Amino acid sequence: MPELTSKGTTISKKGFKKAVAKTQNEEGKKRKKSRRDNYSIYIYKVLKQVHPDTGISSKAMSIMNSFVSDNFERIANEASRLAHYDKRSTITSREIQTAVRLLLPGELAKYAVSEGTKAVTKYTSSK
C-alpha cells in the first residue's frame, strides 16, 4: 500500500529509491538533472575509423573527453566574442571558422577548416 511523504509524493515499500528520484521541489516543478557533455561514443567511433584494432582505457577516454570539451568551450567563447564585436546576436559558421583559425595552430587549423566546410556543405545539401 503506498504512503504519502511530507513533500506530497507517494512511495511504495518496494520502489522507495525510484520514488525518491522523482521528488518535486518547493514550487511543484520536477527537478532537472544537470547534464554533462559526453563525447565518448564519437571519440570511440573516430578511433575505430583510424585504428580499427586499437582500444582505449576509461582513463584515456576521460582525458580525451575533457580535451574535446575544453576545445569546444574555447571555440564557442571565441566565436561569441567575434559575433559580439560585429554587434551580431547569432553565431554563424563564419564566426566558428574564424575562431578555429585563431585558436588552432597552423596545419591543424587548415584541416579543421576544410573538414568543417565539408560538413556544412554536406548539411546544407541534405536540407
Automatic annotation (TrEMBL):
Cellular localisation: Chromosome; Nucleus
Protein name: Core Histone H2A/H2B/H3 domain-containing protein
Protein family according to the UniProt entry: Belongs to the histone H2B family.
Domain of life: Eukaryota
The organism of origin for this protein: Cebus imitator
InterPro entries, sorted: H2A/H2B/H3 (IPR007125), Histone-fold (IPR009072), Histone_H2B (IPR000558)
Annotated Gene Ontology cellular component terms: nucleoplasm; nucleosome
Keyword terms of this UniProt record: Acetylation, Chromosome, DNA-binding, Isopeptide bond, Methylation, Nucleosome core, Nucleus, Phosphoprotein, Ubl conjugation
Residue ranges occupied by any Core Histone H2A/H2B/H3 domain in the UniProt entry: 22-102
